[in-house]
Amino acid sequence: MSKRVPIIIGVVVVLVVGIGAWMLLTAGREATDDAQVEAHVTPVAARIGGTVLSVPAPDNQQVDAGTLLVQIDPRDYEIALAHAEAELANTEAEAAAARADVPITSATATGKVSNARGGVAQAAAGIAEAEQGLEAARARLSTAQARLREQEANAAKAVRDVERLKPLLTKQEIPQQQFDAATADAEARRAAAAEARVKQAQAAVKQAQLNLEYAAVKSPVKGTVSKKSVEPGQVVQPGQPLMTVIPLDRVWITANFKETQLAEMRPGQRVTVKVDAYGGHEFTAKVDSIAAATGARFSLLPPDNATGNFVKVVQRVPVKIVLDEGQDREHVLRPGMSVTSTVYTK
Fold first, then answer.
1. CATH code reported for the domain at 29-40+248-344
2. CA separation (Å) from 268 to 127, 262, 274, 323, 344?
3. Can you list the alpha helix ranges (DSSP code H) found in 101-175?
4. Which one of 10, 138, 203, 328 is most buried, counting C-beta atoms within 10 A?
5. Of the options 3.90.800.10, 2.40.50.100, 3.90.1150.10, 3.30.1060.10, the CATH number for the domain spanning 42-72+216-241
6. First-to-last CA distance in the chain?
7. Strands across the sheet with 62-63, in order?
8. Which residues pair with 71 in a beta bridge?
9. Which helix H or strand E contains 332, and what residues bound it?
10. b or e along 269-292 (b: 16 or more beta carbons within 10 Å of the residue's beta carbon)?
11. In the chain, how long is the greatest CA-to-CA distance?
C-alpha cells in the first residue's frame, strides 16, 4: 500500500503538469473544426430559348471572362432582327412622308407641330438606353407602345375634329383660319404618331439585337466550369441553368465558432487553417469579419424562444477567414472542403 502512494502522487503530478502545459499552450487561441472552404458560385443561365448547337466549355476546366460557354442556334434571332430592321426602315419612310405633308399655315400651327414632336421626343427619350439589357429593352418597348397608342388616339381625334369642321366651313359658320389651324393640328399629330412608331421600331431592333447577342452564352467571370447540365441538341428555355463558374482564386473559409469563443476575437487576427483533404496541410490566414447574426438566425425556420419550451443551446456564429497572399497558388482548395481553423486572439 505504501508503494502505491508515490505512484498515485506521481500520476496526479503528471496530470496537473500536463493540464497546466495544455492550458498554457492553448491560451490565447480559439479553434473549431466546424469550418469549410467557400467561394463565389456564379450560375450561368440561358437568356433566350432555342436549340443548343455546341458547348465549347469542358468540364472542370478554367475559362476566362467572356469565353464562349454555350452556343444557341441564332438563325431565328437573325431573322427576327432582319424583320425588325425592315419595320424600322418602313416606319422611318412613313414618318418622313408625314413630316413633308404637315401644312405650316400659322404661328399657332407651327407651335403645335413643335410641341407634338417635342412630346414624342420626351416620351421616347429612354429608348436609346435599351442596351443595358433585354429586360430594359422590353420595358422601353412597352413604354414606346403606350406612347404610340396615345399619339395615335390624339391624331384620330384631330382628324375627327377636321371632319366635323368641314361642313361648318362650307356654311361659312367658322372662319377659314380656324379650319386651317385644325387641319395643321391634325397633320402635326399624325406626324407625331409616325415619329412614335419610329421610336417603337428602334426599340424593337435593339431588343432583336440583344436576343441575337444572347445566343452566345459567355462566362461572366474567370473561373472553373462546374455542374454543367447542357448538351448539344438540347432545347433550352429562358432562365434555364446551364452550368456554374467558380473563381477558385478567390476562396475563403467560413468557420462557425461557438458564441463563447468570440469574446477576444477581432478582424485582422492571425489564423492557421488545416485542410483535411491534404493530410492536415496548414495554410496561414487572418480573420476578415464576424457575421451579424448566428447561423440559426439564417436558417429556413429560425427557432422561436418565446414558445415557452426554451432550452439554452450554445449558438455558433460564422466567421469569415481569408487566406494570406500566395497561400493557394495552385488553387487546390475547393468549396465545401472541411478544415480546422485556429484563431490566435493574443
1. 2.40.30.170
2. 48, 14, 19, 11, 10
3. 107-123, 134-170
4. 203
5. 2.40.50.100
6. 47
7. 42-45, 241-246, 223-226, 62-63
8. 54, 216
9. none
10. bebbbbbeeeeeeebebebeeebe
11. 142
Global pTM? 0.65
The closest alpha carbon to 197, from 130, 128, 136, 149, belongs to 149
Grid coordinates representing 41?
Answer: 458560385
C-alpha cell at 173: 359658320
Asked if 342 and 257 touch (Cβ cutoff 8 Å), the reply is no
Q: Cell 469579419 appears where?
A: 289
**One pLDDT digit (tens) per residue for the chain, 346 residues:** 566 767 777 777 777 666 665 555 555 899 999 999 999 999 999 999 999 999 999 899 999 999 999 999 999 999 999 999 998 998 888 777 766 654 443 344 344 434 444 444 443 444 344 344 545 656 665 665 666 555 555 555 555 555 654 564 455 555 555 545 555 555 555 557 677 788 889 999 999 999 999 999 999 999 999 999 999 999 999 999 999 999 999 999 999 999 999 999 999 999 999 999 998 899 999 999 999 999 988 888 877 766 666 778 899 999 999 999 999 999 999 999 999 999 999 8
Q: What amino acid occupies position 168?
A: L
Residues 6+ apart with CB under 8 A from 53: 71, 72, 73, 232
Q: Where are the beta strands (DSSP E) in 146-229?
A: 216-218, 223-226
229: Cα within 13 Å, side-chain hemisphere: 11
User: Alpha carbon of 338 to those of 42, 185, 258, 278, 333: distances in Å?
Assistant: 21, 76, 17, 10, 10
Answer yes or no: are the C-beta atoms of 152 and 146 closer than 8 Å.
Answer: no
Cα(204)–Cα(211) distance, rounded to whole angstroms? Answer: 11
Cβ atoms of 47 and 137 within 8 Å: the answer is: no
- Residue 28 corresponds to which cell in the numbers above? 490565447
- Compute how many other C-beta atoms are within 10 angstroms of the C-beta atom of residue 72: 24
